[in-house]
Specification:
The chain is built from 14 helices and 27 strands. With about 650 residues, it is α+β, with helices and mostly antiparallel strands. α11 packs parallel to α12. It has an 8-stranded mixed sheet, sandwiched between helices.
């Protein structure tokens, strides 16, 4: 097993700049000894330093801030919230063991009987299912969360038993951190990871957003290529797909990149060896993080929103350059918040400007009424594990300060990506896979000697090669039949794609295929015409997040539903009368697509965007064209007969 961090070397700290970003010791409390060190009080450790060659000089100016007291008022609400959650591994206690989820407490695992061992294996299997192949074991912790600890001999035997349990399930283990207690006792946190039988690795989709010139593409270039930037954008060149992107330095379309980890937590990227390819990265990795590099310029905002809505990333990284928060970054934050996507913040270019002003600005923004989040500044490996374990609370926002030139802080970001959870349980995944497949088309390509290729996300079901499918809707709302010829995932061929995975498909059509467009879907060929049918009209329960005045019947807005992006007109607002609806108000609204029918089903999330106006909601009812036409025909026949 690989030790990722040791908390026994924690050094005492005084009240610091980081007090504003997490729990601080109450006034009058002692700050000496490892047990009383608080979350952000371990930054002086040498082994918690930055990445690459800058590890010995990590955050020089932040280190100076840490060494002197800070006189700003502490955010007591954040402190109390985190204290109630039992957030800190160093406080001497954890929250009580959760009944659901992938976290398990074990006081000790010493010589269990055969029956007890089988029960423990079954329990581990359940925790792994809850965490989609990942589980966290706290050894030496009681069910109430008290850190009792074990001596070295008992801890060794307990870890050996845990290894035997994992091997029984073909899982791997790695020690994330170890904390020393009094009387030569210790507590160990272990990551157990099992790749599902039907997958090569555990995959997490991460969207990378932020304003123009924040350093998004440069950050991804450094992470995936394994080389620091030269300060003039060298690392980002491999991320660009078009000549105008290279010339302007601005991303205009969706770029997909990947970062892999082996069972021991070591990085696998294009620097792993000279001949490394995307397919080899995927094959060698037990954990795969796939990035979507999204555009930061306002001109390409519609592309960014469509990617977030269509690809449904499990996490988002908001990249901000040290200096100030741009309006575009605020826009991205609002969209991420509206779509209910968990996110972290990366402050870049700290080699050019100190991050203190941007950190204070972030604190004020994230704790405002619109967000009510708890900013959590990451300064060591313990912070990384704490933030990941408790981000499911949906209130914690980890903040990283990094430099793409010196490598400062990149090691903590990489460690965070290694332990980042996919965010969906195996039970939910299996439920989705048992449903008829639905593939949302987001991108269309023309490939020589292959023909039309459609890229997108499989929302539910399982899709295999040579499947007979229907693609649509066309202008009249109907679907046409084709055969899926080949499937590619992560730039490599595969035979099957499962719910929650993105892929590219090529087709074998007997007749010439109609022109595909973004927003179309692929359904099973056996679906009836009533199910596989587009619609112009649909109804949704909508909440207005912001609008300068009031919204009335006839209002036009851009509607995002999965990969659908189209202008729609409000044909009616139920119960609103002549007053319409405004900010923070909700109503059932009837929409009509302007250009062509779309495939919409009840329960789909809807995002409205028109200038600064925003709204969210869920589809409650659809009116398929086939049903509408049938009703119209029936009504006409009845009138004629009468």
């Amino acid at each position: 097993m690989r030790v990722a961090g040791d908390l026994s070397t924690s050094s005492p700290m005084e009240s610091s700049f980081f007090d504003l970003f997490g729990p601080s010791p109450p006034s009058g409390s002692s700050s000496s000894g490892s047990d009383s060190d608080l979350r952000n009080g371990n930054s002086n450790d040498d082994d918690g330093g930055g990445g690459g060659s800058g590890s010995n000089e990590r955050f020089d100016y932040i280190g100076q801030l840490l060494q002197r007291g800070h006189h700003h008022h502490r955010d007591s609400s954040s402190y109390e919230l985190l204290q109630q959650k039992g957030f800190d591994f160093n406080r001497g206690f954890l929250p009580p063991e959760p009944q659901v989820g992938n976290i398990e407490y074990k006081l000790k695992l010493i010589n269990p009987s055969k029956q007890r061992f089988e029960h423990l294996v079954t329990q581990m299997k359940w925790r792994l299912r809850e965490g989609n192949g990942e589980a966290i074991y706290e050894i030496g912790v009681s069910d109430s969360g008290f850190l009792q600890g074990l001596n070295d001999a008992d801890m060794t035997v307990s870890l050996q038993t845990l290894n035997q349990m994992a091997r029984k399930l073909d899982a791997s283990t790695s020690i994330l951190r170890r904390k020393s207690l009094a009387d030569q006792r210790s507590v160990v946190e272990v990551l157990v990871r099992k790749i599902p039988d039907d997958q090569h690795n555990i995959e997490v989709r991460v969207a990378v957003l932020g304003g123009a010139d924040a350093g998004k593409s440069t950050l991804l270039g450094v992470l995936t290529q394994g080389e620091f930037d030269n300060g003039r954008g060298l690392a980002r060149l491999n991320m660009f797909r078009h000549m105008h992107e290279i010339q302007t330095g601005r991303t205009s379309c969706i770029s997909h990149e990947m970062l892999g980890f082996d069972a021991e937590g070591s990085v696998i990227n294009y620097k792993y060896n000279e001949m490394m390819t995307a397919e080899e990265i995927s094959d060698r990795s037990t954990k795969l993080v796939t990035f979507m590099d999204l555009a930061g310029h306002r001109r390409y905002l519609k592309t960014t929103v469509q990617a977030l809505s269509g690809y449904c990333p499990q996490h988002a990284l908001i990249v901000i350059a040290a200096g100030n928060i741009s309006n575009m970054t605020r826009e991205h934050l609002a969209i991420i918040h509206a779509l209910d996507i968990s996110f972290s913040i990366i402050v870049t270019k700290i080699d050019l400007a100190p991050p203190d002003p941007i950190l204070f600005e972030l604190k004020n923004l994230l704790t405002s009424i619109g967000y009510r989040k708890v900013p959590y500044l990451i300064s060591n490996q313990d912070d990384v594990l704490n933030a990941n374990a408790h981000q499911s609370v949906e209130q914690i926002v980890p903040i990283f300060c990094v430099s793409n030139v010196t490598g400062a802080g990149l090691d903590l970001l990489i460690q965070y990506l290694y332990v980042l959870s996919p965010g969906i349980s195996n039970a939910e995944k299996e439920r989705l896979e048992q449903q008829p497949f639905e593939f949302q088309i987001d991108e269309i390509f023309r490939v020589a000697e292959v023909g039309t290729v459609a890229g997108g996300l499989l929302c539910k079901g399982v899709l295999t090669e040579n499947s007979q499918v229907k693609v649509g809707p066309l202008q009249d709302g109907s679907f046409f039949s084709v055969t899926v010829q080949t499937i590619h995932r992560n730039k490599a061929p595969c035979r099957v794609v499962r719910a929650g995975q993105s892929a590219s498909l090529s087709f074998n059509a007997i007749e010439p295929m109609p022109v595909l467009r973004s927003g179309m879907v692929i359904l099973p060929d056996y679906e009836s015409a009533e199910v596989a049918c587009g619609c112009f009209f649909f109804q949704a329960q909508v909440s207005v997040l912001f609008h300068a005045t009031r919204i009335f019947k006839g209002f036009q807005t851009t509607v995002h539903i999965g990969s659908i992006r189209q202008t729609a007109i409000i044909e009616g607002i139920m119960g609103a009368g002549d007053t319409g609806i405004g900010t923070n108000q909700s109503a059932s609204v009837l929409f009509r697509f302007v250009r062509h029918p779309e495939y919409v089903r009840p329960g789909m999330r809807i995002l409205l965007r028109e200038g600064t106006s925003k709204g969210i909601g869920k589809v409650t009812q659809v009116f398929p064209l086939a049903q509408t036409q049938h009703n119209h025909t029936t009504a006409t026949t009845t009138t004629t007969t009468g």
